[in-house]
Amino acid sequence: MRQSPEFGCHVSNVVSCLERSRACEGDMMLPSNIPVTPTRNNTASIIAEYKTSVQSSYENVKEYNSRPGENVLLSERYTDLLMVECHRKPEEREEEIRSRGQSLQDILRSRSSEAYSPITVEQLFRPDDRGCIPKAVILQGHPGYGKSFTSQKIVLDWASGTLFKELFHLVLHLECKEINGISGECSLVDLLNYSTEDVLRDQKIKVLFLVDGFDELKVSLVDAGSALPKDPFTKAPVQATLKALLKGHILPQCKLLLTTRSTATMTLSSLVTDSQRFVDILGFTEDGVKDYFHSFFQDEHKADALFEYVRTNETLYTSCFIPVICWVTCTVFRAQERKGAQLTKELTNTSIYANFVSILPEHHSPSLSVSVPVLLSSLGRLAEKGMKEKCVLFTKKDVLSTVSDPECTVSHLTTGPFLCELSCKRVFRTEEMFSFMHLSFQEFFVALHYNLDQEGEKRLLCLLNSQQHWESQRQPVIQFLFGLVNKEMQNLEFLQSTLFSSYIRRHLEKWVLEKIADHKLVQSRLMFILYCLHELHEDEFVRTVMDNVGPLCFLYTPLTKVDCWVLRYCLLCCTTIKKLKLSECEMTAEMLRMLQPALSKCQVLSLDLEAVDDDDIWTFLSTLMKGHKLKKLSLDVVKGSLEDVGMFISSLADKHILTGQSNLYPRAPGHVNLALVIGVQNQRKCREMKALLVDGTLW
Predict the structure, then answer these.
(1) Are 348 and 315 in contact (CB under 8 A)?
(2) How far from 142 is each of 14, 281, 304, 321, 412, CA to CA, in Å?
(3) Taking each helix axis from N to C terminus, what angle separates 589-599 and 614-624, rounded to the nearest 10 degrees?
């Protein structure tokens, strides 16, 4: 399917020479539709030319948002995937779907153990336990998991001599989405379009056919009939030609590598009658995500910093095991960088998921015969059914029950890009089950359904007026709801039909103002409100909410880096922060630097800096004093002895940072706690520093 004009010229010259030599080889007695066998030297020459063409065609790939002339090197961008040969049990699949963050990565790490038969690309055609090499390898993966990317990398590496060098003389690539554009009868050679027909008549040549995207075929191979061609040169309907290849009627000695989504695996398996190997792509492991960030940014320091940010964001880290989500995330980071903005400033979980949903129908289901809003609405009903019943695996009957629009059928849902199919083995049979890629996508579709459905407003009010909104399984849905009503989100094509977003937004705004007015809100619920505001990401409304907030206190609860980013965004939207207290939150110097621009807006600030070095404290205080809001500051630091305390206070005085008094009290054997309570008056620099020691004397 990828042919350079130069290669066609070279091959035609070689073929002409071969045709002139046929009479000398006595091949004129063969049937006219069967080409003669070339000499080994000519075969090698044709294959060498073909490899050169493949390397030229496959070394660069386009990304989803590439403009004309823009591409990336496949060898630099490709990242190894976790693949397993073992069929997992339904409860194991459910465990993968429900787990989040580090817990999910721990599970994926366990899937790379010998118990699950992990396999690499190089091992796809390794002998099985009986020493047999499979005729066909079925490589299954959900949309966006890297099947086509892997296919291209396999072809490129073979042509470069780094893969399957001893296994196959020739690797031929068939892309099903391109076959869809072929009408009428054609031979296998016609489908290849590589001018390698003269090589295929050499029965000693070991050939691998890589058929990519079987699930994308518009024609049904099951209905192709039994009159199948027997050689690669006989013309027949395209479905008959493909079926003949899969069933071994054409070139029975060749091997097959076929990629497909889970929704077409059973059909494909029934078409390949010889020995098969089933391989499931699970996505990126933690190391894979990190490697992808490095390959994308080509800057070790930047890649490490962004990976650490993602790793602390449970929702984002959960979804980044899907390769296309990794790409979306990195692309958003890069867009921020090009605008000169803080790389993580406008990154919300909703924006990542919404862009993912926007990409899939266009690039992974271009022939979808149902409108995207109708498809999304049906999927939303299924997702909401699962949320109510606390279910992540669905039967076909469950899927059928969610279809209400005559335009959308069960087939549209099960063959579309968003549902995954798994075959569950029962005692005497197998059963089709369906799921979303992960529970977080199911939660996103629930939120999306509220915006798409005319009954969504009613159901939202029911949710907000009950205590269910505080339940952990409902909170991600509410956060996605806030993100979806963001005005910029409405620019995405599939969200432009969300006619009820304005009503949803009005109810969400009213709800959050009522909740934030409760100054007795426990800190876990307060942090959840801040996360909702961060997903909304509209400064004016966030400022309105934050200006009504009472004292902000987070005590005895470790903060994550993402917590600090959320807190920073919300605090920066404030006109003034009356009081902020962070105690026993395991604050680090990095977190302090993240929060510093916002802390200068505080009037009263109390911080626990036990894990922060003196140099970082001094830098922080020097910067903090440049603000104009601070009236009172309380710091809590730990020193090993009273002598250390004296040196610390002397350093503060020598640096002319602050004025006020300090209190000391015993913390633990061998340690002394220094509580600095500093009154700041008119931003004057330090002229005097006093410390009240435990015995009541002044230091």
Answers:
(1) no
(2) 42, 8, 28, 12, 16
(3) 10
Alpha-carbon distance values, 252 to 36, 245, 246, 273 (Å): 18, 8, 9, 11
Neighbours of 560 (CB within 10 A): 15
* 222 residue type, one letter: V
* Cβ–Cβ < 8 Å for 562, 309: yes
3-state helix, strand, coil in the chain (%, to 5): 50, 15, 35
DSSP SS3 for 256: strand
Angstrom distance (rounded) from CA 317 to CA 159 = 35
Lowest mean pLDDT among 8-22, 89-103, 289-303, 364-378: 8-22
Residue type, 113: S
Count how many Cα atoms sit within 13 Å of the Cα of residue 554 in the half-sphere of its side chain: 21
**Dihedral sign (CA 218, 219, 221, 222):** positive
3-state secondary structure of 639: strand
Which pLDDT does position 343 carry in this prediction? Answer: 58
User: What's the chain's average pLDDT?
Assistant: 79
Residue 255 · residue 136 · CB < 8 Å: yes
**Angle between helix 349-364 and 439-452 (nearest 10):** 90
User: CA 352, CA 619: separation in Å to the nearest integer?
Assistant: 35
- Token digits for 564? 């600090």
Helical segments of 286-431, H only: 286-297, 300-312, 314-319, 323-338, 349-364, 372-389, 396-401, 410-415
Percentage of the chain lying above the pLDDT 70 cut = 78
Q: What is the residue type of 694? A: V
Residue 699 has pLDDT above 50, yes or no: no
Q: Which residues make Cβ contacts (< 8 Å) with residue 223, sequence separation at least 6?
A: 239
Listed ranges 518-527, 571-580, 635-644, 660-669; the one with the highest mean pLDDT: 571-580
SS3 call for 416: coil
Query: Among candidates 260, 254, 252, which has minimal Cα distance to 230?
Result: 252
Using CA atoms, how far residue 323 sits from 187, 296, 376, in Å, is 35, 12, 22
Is-contact 556 583, C-beta < 8 A?
Answer: yes
Q: Directed axis angle between helix 439-452 and helix 372-389, to 10°?
A: 120
Among residues 676, 692, 590, the alpha carbon closest in space to that of 632 is found at 676
Q: Return the half-sphere exposure (C-beta side, CA atoms, 13 A cut-off) of residue 568.
A: 19
The pLDDT, as a whole number, for residue 497 is 60
Residue 233: what residue type? F
CB neighbours of residue 695 within 10 Å: 7
* Residue 586, Ramachandran bin (φ over 0: left; ψ between -120 and 50: alpha; else beta): left
Cα separation, 435 vs 419, in Å, equals: 6
pTM equals 0.77
Q: How many CA atoms lie within 13 A of 306 on its CB side?
A: 31
Q: Residue 449: CA atoms inside 13 Å, Cβ hemisphere, count?
A: 24
- For 509-566, write each residue's pLDDT tens digit: 999 998 888 767 788 888 999 999 999 999 999 999 998 888 888 988 888 888 998 9
Termini Cα distance of the chain: 82
For 39, list phi and psi in degrees, rounded to 5: -70, 160
